Every structure is written in C-alpha cells, then in structure tokens.
Inverse folding.
C-alpha cells in the first residue's frame, strides 16, 4: 500500500515548492498532484515542510575510550537521532592497533546489526598503517562499500598517525576511490602543553581548552591541506571549530583544491565561557577541539552560508557526567572527550540557522543532508526528495515550540549540552524508506535501520 503526503512544502537543496509525495516499497515513485489509487493511504501534512531525512556524517556510538565506553550504543543513539529528524548516520569503525580493517568493520557490524532505528554506514578510523592494512585500503570501497577513511593528527600514543602515514593514505585514496577525513589538531604540541600544565598543578577542566589552543588546529589543518595538495587528493576536515582553521580551508579552495570542511552545532552555538563554570561542571564541555571564543561563530555560520563549509555533523560522543566525566576529577587529561548532540543537530540548525537568518531553507537541507550524501556516496539514494530516491522524509512542523532539556531527551546520557535552548519546529513524522518510524516525538518500538553500502564518488 502506497502512502501519499498531501499539502506540504517540499524543500531540497535547490528548490522549494508545494506538491504531494507518493511512495511505496521504500522509494518515492511520484511527486505532484494526483488522485489516490485504490488502497493508498493519504496523510495530510498541511503547513509542514517536507525535508530529506537528515544525514549525520559524524557519530561515535558504542565506542570504547580508555577505561570507559560511550553512554549511547546504536540502539539508544539512533533512536535519539530518529526522533530529532536524522535518518542516516555515518559512524566510525575504529581499528585497534595490530588489527585489520576487516576486523574493525565486523566489530561495528556486530554493534549495529538489528539495533539501529535508522540507516547507517561506516567511516574507517585507521591508526595502524601496516603493509596488510595498505592492501585492505586499496579495495575497501569496492568490497565493503566504505568510501571514507579517517586519520587523527591528535591523540598522541593512541590514535595519532604521522605525516608519512597520512600522505600514503591520501595517495592510496586516489586509486581506491575513498575520501580521506582528518582530525586536525597537532597531537605532539598538545601532549607537550598537557604535561606542562600538569607539572604546574593545573588540573581543572578548563585546562583542557587551554592546552588545545586555536593554533594547534590551524597548524594541523594547514599541514593536512599541504599534504593533500602534494598527493593530488581531496580532503575532508572534520569538526572545524575556529575562524583560523576555516581560513586555511578557504585559502585552499581559492586555489582550486578539493578541500571540504565540517563543523558542529557546539561550535556554532557554544563558546569557551562554558569552561568558567564553578567546580567540575565544565567537564561536560570537554571535547576536542574544545569550544572557542564566541567571535568564531559568525565566521562559521558564514562558512556554511557561502559553501566554504560543506556539512554539519554532531560529533556525538556521549559520556555521563556521573561516573564517566568524573574519571577526570583529579586530572583534566583523564576526562573522556566528547559530548551528546545526535538528537538536537537537525532542530538546532533549523532554529538557529534558518529562523535566525543565517541559512535559507535550501542551505539548511544542503548542510544537514544533501552535501554529506554527495561527498560520501549516498546521493541520490539519500539526501534529496526525488522520484527513485529512498523515501526518507522528515515532516517538519514549524509551529511547534519546545525547550531542550535532558529530562525529555532520548539520548542515554545524564545532561544535554544545549540545556535550556529554545527550539522552533519539530518533526511531526519521520519516514525511513517509507516506514513511519517517528510520530509526534515517539519512535517505533523495533529498529528498522540497515547497513548502506556506499558508492565511489570519483
């Protein structure tokens, strides 16, 4: 039986227009104005926007970090994502030292299979570039549908790779057809700054930010871009937090380089004043890169508006304040890095992007869905509303008003970074491949998501 959404306004990255959408068997099969066929279910959505399902290109679910593990696994994290308007995520299948990439992928399949409320794919996070891993990288896009690989220039002695490894992966990517993503902070300098702070007895959470200044992000971004230019390969810079790092991306793009930037709601809406909270409460905002001075925010918004930044990911990496963030009460370097946000990304970008005048509706769709779909091999299956695309549709009611609070969230964590923020609009319904998975803030009981093999984009 087909469903028809009637009376809504369709919004894609390029167009805004009124029409009905008919979908069955998981796909959109007609857009326009037409009479229902026998057995069709007509759903009135007058006054609502019809957005493509959100695509969050940056999540960390069920991830072991040191002595603890993220508070959200694929069940709780993707349920929260769905309620917020996201229908696809790309999570990081993280290689352990000495292990193969195939082992990392299989571990993440085990974590996600049967537990995800929405569709998902994997980036590969590589930290041990052995000879056998290089062989795996050469075929990973074709064999596993993994079209993106992440390397860290931060986290010395755990995840950090050196410049030679990054350059080699960039060179492999040209033939293998995957996009290289990089966490740009200078891990060697951070390690030095942390040790100096500890020697001075500076152990409070605020020193996390002070030991990761803007310079270490700027320098690593410039270095990664230089290596990408030398290799002749595209590059995707994750979680850009500062004007200084953005300037490096802008300069590269002005020279015709294929450099893509991602930012996150926390860098658009929060600032370093959070680290001045009394006691240990500032630990909630310990993430990498850290929050920056407020004057960076307008530059990041303008970066999105003018397509200098391509996407907005949540970088959802949730740890409870009680029992997890508290692991670093005596030493800020032991505070698990990361914060929650998978549930709020879509609504925050609508409220503080569209309603506040930073973004048009079409730009909102581009940075929350379409651009990620194009960069990571999901388009046009996902990321747009078109005949033949998956019926991943968010019916967005702009009249709803709410206040974000941890007491009402689906995220499995004991605080919310955006506590008290007002939100305008909310999903009335969320459809995943034509199945209604959310209605008025309530998700279905059984997960419906599946793994998506992605296509090479070059």
């Amino acid at each position: 039986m087909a469903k028809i959404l009637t009376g809504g306004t369709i919004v894609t990255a390029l167009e805004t227009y009124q029409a009905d959408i008919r979908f069955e068997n998981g796909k959109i099969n007609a857009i326009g104005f037409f009479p229902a066929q026998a057995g069709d279910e007509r759903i009135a959505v007058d006054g609502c926007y019809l957005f493509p399902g959100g695509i969050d290109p940056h999540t960390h679910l069920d991830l072991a970090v040191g002595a603890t593990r993220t508070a959200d696994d694929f069940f709780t994290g993707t349920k929260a994502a769905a309620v917020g308007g996201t229908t696809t995520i790309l999570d990081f299948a993280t290689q352990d030292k000495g292990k193969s990439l195939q082992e990392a992928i299989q571990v993440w399949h085990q974590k996600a299979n049967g537990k995800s409320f929405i569709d998902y794919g994997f980036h590969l996070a590589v930290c041990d570039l052995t000879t056998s891993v290089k062989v795996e990288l050469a075929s990973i896009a074709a064999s596993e549908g993994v079209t993106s690989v992440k390397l860290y220039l931060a986290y010395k002695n755990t995840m950090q790779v050196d410049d030679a490894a990054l350059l080699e992966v960039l060179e492999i990517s040209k033939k293998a057809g995957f996009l290289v993503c990089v966490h740009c902070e200078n891990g060697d300098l951070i390690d030095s700054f942390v040790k100096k702070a500890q020697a001075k007895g500076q152990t409070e959470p605020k020193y996390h930010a002070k030991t990761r200044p803007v310079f270490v992000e700027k320098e690593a971004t410039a270095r990664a871009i230089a290596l990408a230019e030398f290799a002749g390969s595209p590059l995707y810079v994750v979680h850009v937090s500062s004007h200084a790092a953005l300037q490096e991306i802008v300069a590269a793009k002005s020279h015709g380089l294929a450099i893509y930037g991602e930012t996150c709601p926390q860098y658009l809406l929060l600032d370093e004043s959070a680290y001045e909270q009394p006691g240990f409460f500032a630990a909630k905002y310990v993430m990498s890169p850290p929050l920056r001075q407020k004057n960076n925010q307008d530059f990041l918004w303008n970066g999105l508006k003018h397509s200098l930044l391509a996407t907005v990911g949540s970088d959802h990496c949730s740890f409870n304040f009680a029992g997890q963030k508290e692991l670093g009460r005596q030493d800020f370097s032991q505070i698990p890095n990361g914060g929650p946000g998978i549930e709020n990304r879509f609504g925050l970008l609508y409220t503080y992007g569209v309603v506040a005048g930073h973004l048009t509706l079409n730009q909102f769709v581009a940075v929350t869905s379409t651009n990620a779909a194009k960069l990571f091999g999901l388009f046009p299956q996902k990321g747009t509303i078109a005949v033949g695309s998956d019926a991943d549709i968010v019916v967005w009611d702009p009249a709803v008003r709410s206040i974000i609070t941890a007491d009402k969230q689906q995220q499995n964590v004991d605080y919310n970074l955006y506590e008290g923020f007002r939100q305008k609009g909310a999903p009335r319904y969320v459809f995943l491949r034509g199945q209604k998975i959310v209605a008025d803030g309530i998700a279905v009981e059984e997960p419906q998501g599946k793994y998506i093999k992605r296509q090479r984009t070059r």
